[in-house]
Design a protein that fits this description.
alpha/beta; 7 helices; 10 strands; 39% helix; single chain; two-stranded antiparallel ribbon
Amino acid sequence: MKELIAKDLLKIHAVFLRPEEPFTWASGIKSPIYCDNRLTLTAPEVRNDIENGLARLVKENYPQAEALFGTSTAGIAHAAITAHILDMPMGYVRSGNKDHGRQNRIEGSLHAGEKVVVVEDLISTGGSVIEVVEALREAGAEVLGIVSIFTYGMQKGLDRLAAANVKNVSLTDFECVVQTAASENYIKAEDVERLIAFRNNPADESWIKT
């Protein structure tokens, strides 16, 4: 599963590795990786692999799940399609309350004590998905955990998830994508160590000169 999804993401450039010409994040940090999992929605074959994979993760890891809730906005479509496969209710959580109407932050029916799984496309430092988990908990849901397409495995993200006492299961991860990229000749074999160094400490840009 991990290698299949890694190949899918690389094929459509949803995950794009460019160690020789780094991207610049909004924070100013130089990054050898660019992720845009929204592209998976426009690639039917890849989308099929991902949604069936997410459904499998939910069934295997959270068999008691009663509903799926997507993160806004990237997780909404994936939550909807996966919920359709599983014949399960679905909703989503906004980044903040609406400023009109009923001023909802959580869209969709949610009952106190309902066992839910959060659907996210990408986890890096974990901040945004944990906000979603906390909003659902405050609304009375029992959050069983998270399923996601891709995770960096950054220590900050791992620490935050642990502190929030929430489990995440991803279809693929940084190590698998990097190793697959090397074996499929998207990058050079010697770039693997540089990419891992970036993941381990994004603020340290010494990997650029390696």
